[in-house]
Each structure stands twice: as structure tokens, then as C-alpha cells.
Description:
The structure is a single chain. This protein is an alpha/beta fold. The chain folds into two domains: 3-108, Cobalt-precorrin-4 Transmethylase, domain 1 (3-Layer(aba) Sandwich); 115-231, Methyltransferase, Cobalt-precorrin-4 Transmethylase, Domain 2 (2-Layer Sandwich). The chain has helices at residues 19-27, 36-45, 60-72, 93-101, 115-122, 141-148, 164-175, 199-207, and strands spanning 4-6, 30-33, 51-54, 77-80, 106-108, 129-134, 154-159, 180-185, 193-198, 215-219. The strands form two sheets. Strands 3-2-4-1-5 form a five-stranded parallel beta sheet, with helices on both faces. It has a five-stranded mixed beta sheet with strand order 6-7-10-8-9, sandwiched between helices. Strand 2, helix 2 and strand 3 (51-54) form a beta-alpha-beta unit. Helix 3 (60-72) crosses helix 4 (93-101) and helix 7 (164-175) packs antiparallel against helix 8. The chain starts with a strand and ends in a 21-residue tail after the last strand. The structure holds S-adenosylmethionine (SAM).
Amino acid sequence: MAKLYIIPTPIGNLEDITLRALRILKEVDFVLAEDTRVSGKLLHHFGIEKRLMAHHMHNEHKSVEAIAEMIMTGLSVAMVSDAGTPGISDPGFMLVRECLKQGIEVECLPGPTAFVPALVNSGLPVDRFLFEGFLPHKKGRQTKLKWLAQQPYTIVFYESPYRLIKTLEQIAEFFGPERLVCVSRELTKMFEENARGTVTEVLNHFKQKTIKGEIVIIVEGYNAKNEAASNDSGDDEDDE
Ligand code: SAM
């Protein structure tokens, strides 16, 4: 029976594609891609010629029903995003939900995603963690940071290089300057870096250089040790 395959793709190192991902990309009738140029290059690299259809945050609301209908006619479809696992801070959720609603089988392959290596590299507890993805830029940002500062779980943030300093400064402010963090930059790529230490130490490190590349921030969860440091600093002036 035709189904929807969710296919993770490399986050930097092309060797990270799985054999099964390649086989399914070859076998499906067409591939839904966040950016057809990006995925076209990836498929071309692996010698796969396949029909690509754009499926991204700007059209996913409108197109999910039509795609589910196509799958129900017997076509098998794979969804990829530009990098990593679709649905993780990327389009994917809406189509998965629609397919399940229509009784279509969905199969997500295991594979690359940025937060897993960042989390494990961090050396912070991985038994319980909270995936936060990108923080809101304005509305609700401080309220969220205040709440997160009190959670006893290791926290995962995705961040852009342009906002790293501001976010680390706010983590120091809301979580306390001694909270442990790990900033993973350019994972799986030639210039991969994992900077670990207190948020103050890591902030000083990044203030001394030009920050480039893709970034995951891992933050230690709240515990008795950092209780004193994480006080009730900050107010909600950006939350209107
Ligand atoms: N779907 C992807 C996944 O499974 O991780 C995430 C897509 S999200 C639009 C892109 C963000 O993921 C980047 O801004 C960065 O925070 C993180 N990211 C992606 N690749 C990365 C890498 N090689 N190193 C560090 N962070 C990365």
C-alpha cells in the first residue's frame, strides 16, 4: 500500500544519509521538498532522478489534503526538508497529521537531526530533556525564558548565529550566570565546534569571534545548585 515516508537528510555531512533513505528515495513516486533546488542537488549527488514537489511552510496549509489524496490513489511519497528530520523545526507535522486522519500509513526513518548529537556532545544529563527549538523573537520570549529557567530538564534551543549572543545573555540573566551550557556549531561539518562551560564562559568565548554557521544551544536544567543563581530577574516588557 502507498504511504508517506519521512526521510531525514544530512545536516552537513553527506555520509550521514542512510542506505534505507537512499533506497526509499529511489523507489517512491515523488519527493516533497522544502526547497526543490536544495533537495534536487542532494538527490543528484546520489544519482537519483526523481520528481520533486515543493512543500514548505508557505504552502503546507493548502496542499496537505491534495497530497493525502494523491497517496490514496496509490502513489508513494517521501518528504524531505533542507536538512535533518522533517517536522523538527521544519515543515512536516501538518502532512503527517492529515495522512493519519485519512488512514494513510506514515513511516519516519531514523536519521540525522541536529539536536541529538548536540545533546549527547554536551555532557549534560540526557535522561530527560526539553526540546524548545527556536525561541520567539519578541512576543512571549521573556515569559518563556522565565518558565524554562525553572524546569529540571536539559533544554535544547535552535539558534541563528546572529542571535546567539543575545540569547546567551538572556540565558545568563534568567537562568543565572553559572548555568552550564554547550553551544554546538556546524555539527558534522569541517569546522564543528562544541563550546562547553558556564553561560558566562561560553558567552565570553563567542564575544571574541565572528560567529558563523548553524547552532544548537544545550542548557543545564534547574537544580538545587543553580537555585540561588536563577533569581526572579527580568520583567515582561517585550511580551505585549
Ligand atoms: N529539521 C532540522 C533537524 O532535524 O535538526 C532542523 C531544521 S531548523 C530550520 C535549522 C536549525 O537546526 C539551525 O538553525 C540550527 O539551529 C540547527 N542545525 C541544523 N544543522 C545544524 C548543524 N550542522 N549544526 C548545528 N546546528 C544545526
